[in-house]
Amino acid sequence: MLDIIPRIKLANLPTPLQEMKNLAYSLDMKSLWIKRDDLTGISFGGNKTRKLEYVMGDALEAGADTLVTVGAIQSNHCRQTAAAAAQVGLRCILLLAGEEPEDYTGNLLLDRLFGAEIQFFPDDDFMGLSDRIGSVIETLKELGLSPYGIPPGAFMPVGCLGYVQAMLELKEQCEETGLRPMKILHPVGTGGTLAGMIIGAKLAELEADIIGISVLHDAKTIIERVREMILRMFDEYPALIDKFEPEIKVDERFMGKGYGLMEDGVRSAIQMFAKSQGIVLDPVYTAKAGLALLRMVMSGEIASDATTIFWHTGGSPALFKYGSELLDS
Fold first, then answer.
1. Helix, strand, coil % over all residues of the chain, rounded to 5
2. What is the model's pTM?
3. Greater pLDDT, 258 or 35
4. What integer is the mean pLDDT of 69-91?
5. Which is nearest to 73 in space by CA: 291, 328, 317?
6. What are the phi and psi torsion angles at 202 (to 5°)?
7. Cα–Cα distance between 161 and 72 in angstroms, integer?
8. Fewer CB atoms inside 10 A, N or C side of the chain?
9. One of 31, 75, 130, 316 is an active-site residue; which one?
10. Torsions phi, psi for 276 (to 5 deg)
11. CATH T-level assignment (fold) for domain 48-154
């Protein structure tokens, strides 16, 4: 069914599935792999590019000329949306939660380079800011434009299709390499990637435990959001897969003191991945999932003989905002 849904090619797919032998040796693991969605290509890559292939297809099918979305100041989603809009020739408006900084760095710098129009909202967080999308869209319509709203993280059924497709891709790679993953870890913000993964794993008959490492909300909130999205996908795409009762696993222990805050464990995870594998994590998302992987292996929660995949969702441009904090050891 995925073949008949409008989709615009943006990503370099399939992304590599690579063995992390050095890190596995350090952790005394037999088989540790990484799925490199930081290499999807457009604007330094990331998981949102997969989602945007379907979102952009839907937007163009609807005749949109303007995209409106929201995020934090260093939003990976906004950066990839701005790049995708530039690539297909659409106007892009970003509503960002927080004060406009004096210096534009990381993702925010790229937003500007891609030509996005940016509005800052100092008194809002990026999840609450999504309530403003509707009023902005109405204003744009009054001006004669055809806007298309995208919620934070492209948390919408059409966006989640990107990770249904991703799990089918992973299935093919596992068959080619003879890999039988038992655990798949990835960071979770809004929950759309996890929802797509769960449906995709069922469709691909992959039996690995998919564990979302929350960076934003408590586990109960994420599980409710993911379950709701899966039900929406069942309703919106009834031919995609038969309904089933999803098993949703979310770990909230690695959020730390707050969203996007650099802490010792996060810093250590970034340094360990970098020094052992030459792989860059970001402090907001992937480093917290990386920290979860390290601690869960060292504590025995993930057995040393459990074939494990760490799903890298990108975010490297945000790293450059944290230079001094990262090197302050």
1. 50, 15, 35
2. 0.96
3. 35
4. 96
5. 317
6. -65, -45
7. 23
8. C
9. 75
10. -90, -30
11. Rossmann fold (3.40.50)
Q: Which residues, 6+ apart, have CB-to-CB distance to 315 below 8 Å?
A: 38, 46, 76, 281, 282, 284, 285, 286
Question: Is 316 annotated as catalytic?
Answer: no
* Residues 229 and 236: beta-carbon distance below 8 Å: no
DSSP state of 200: H
Domains 2-45+156-327 and 48-154 share a fold: yes
Query: 251, 241 in Cβ contact below 8 A?
Result: no
CATH number, domain 2-45+156-327: 3.40.50.1100
Question: pLDDT digits over 130-155, tens only?
Answer: 889 999 999 999 999 999 999 999 99
Share of the chain above pLDDT 90, in %: 90
Residue 30, pLDDT > 70, answer: yes
Q: Which residues pair with 212 in a beta bridge?
A: 186, 250
- Structural domain spans, the chain: 2-45+156-327, 48-154
Give the pLDDT band of residue 329 (cuts 50, 70, 90): low
What's residue 327's pLDDT?
A: 78
| Contact by Cβ (8 Å): 181, 206 | yes
